[in-house]
Write a structure and sequence with these properties.
The structure is a single chain. By secondary structure, this protein is of the alpha+beta class. Helices cover 35% and strands 20% of the residues. The strands form 3 sheets. A 7-stranded mixed β-sheet has the order 1-2-9-6-11-4-3. A 4-stranded antiparallel β-sheet has the order 5-10-7-8, with no helix packed on it. Strands 12-13 form a two-stranded antiparallel ribbon. The two termini are 38 Å apart.
């Protein structure tokens, strides 16, 4: 746990900037994950989001979970359940347009709070994309442009609760997968653990830490960096005690954004590694991912290569 990359964002403003940037680069190359503290989102706001998210689960979702999932998932089961997850979720879309007003059972105060929180996370995501650009030697704003498409990025929050499970050996909170999108910002429970990532063939716990934001990279960052930065398999282990809260916010390309390795990075590659990744429209990748989420990412990339001849690059995202 001591080795898990922890980034103190405050230090980016001081003389240790070079050291912190190198830590971020190492985390992106070797972990696909890192945890941030002093990221600029106030502790008060985070505490309020956590309190209201947990209250909403208790009031509106806990009973539904018991009736819909808990009662059915493990009925008569002796082998591991591989076709469902031990989680209670709903999804808030922020960009290109918000669905927060349409989600049932949310109090107005909670709706407004989540809009405010999403705005802070959106700014943080774009700040992080520029830090990645700096480390990669890409011009500032390149990744944001690459994600933009014609209507701007997709940005949304998956609000999850992972209730106590009587037989965690028989079902995962969330089965192992890589994330399809761009950059993911996670505000997770600081008392109930469960998130793990796969590194060098071993599952490693992502340590819960109060007021931190955990960052992980999605498949699109791997493609744009031509594999220099990697998306990494991760999962949630069900626990016998405590309900784990998880708010994962996904800053993804727009549906019509064309994704491909950055030409400026390909120039630096040896011939044999020139372009190992496909070019595709993000929405086409998402349609493929929907049926293959819990499988390895490599066949998805290969499948996109097979259809890439028809993809033309728009005027955005040129180096």
């Amino acid at each position: 746990m001591a080795n898990f990359p922890l980034i103190n964002m405050e230090k980016l403003n001081g003389e240790e900037r070079g050291v912190i940037m190198e830590k971020i680069n190492d985390a992106c190359e070797n972990w696909g994950f890192f945890e941030m503290v002093n990221h600029g989102i106030s502790h008060e706001l985070m505490d309020k989001v956590e309190r209201m998210t947990k209250e909403h689960y208790k009031k509106c979702m806990e009973q539904r979970f018991k009736e819909m999932v808990a009662a059915k998932a493990l009925e008569g089961v002796k082998a591991e359940v591989t076709d469902m997850d031990w989680e209670s979720t709903f999804f808030l879309r922020h960009l290109p347009s918000s669905n927060i007003s349409e989600i049932p059972d949310l109090e107005d105060e909670y709706r407004n709070l989540m809009k405010e929180f999403a705005g802070k996370l959106e700014n943080l995501a774009e700040e992080l994309l520029d830090l990645l650009c700096e480390n990669l030697g890409l011009e500032k704003g390149y990744l944001k442009k690459a994600f933009y498409g014609s209507k701007g990025p997709n940005f949304g929050t998956k609000v999850s609760n992972y209730p106590p499970c009587p037989t965690p050996e028989l079902i995962k909170g969330l089965r192992a997968h890589t994330d399809a999108g761009g950059i993911i910002l996670l505000f997770q429970d600081d008392t109930v653990s469960g998130l793990q990532l796969l590194k060098d063939g071993e599952w490693i716990d992502v340590p819960p830490m109060r007021h931190s934001i955990v960052i992980n990279l999605g498949d699109q960052i791997e493609v744009i960096t031509n594999g220099r930065y990697k998306s990494v398999m991760h999962r949630v282990i069900a626990q016998t005690d405590g309900t784990r809260m998880s708010l994962a916010s996904f800053y993804n390309p727009g549906n019509d954004a064309v994704i491909y390795p950055a030409p400026a990075l390909l120039e630096k590659e040896p011939i044999e590694k020139e372009q190992c990744y496909p070019k595709f429209v993000f929405d086409d990748y998402m349609k493929l991912y929907a049926g293959l989420k819990f499988q390895a990412k490599e066949p998805r990339f290969e499948a996109m290569k097979a259809v890439e001849t028809n993809v033309s690059v728009g005027p955005v995202a040129t180096a």
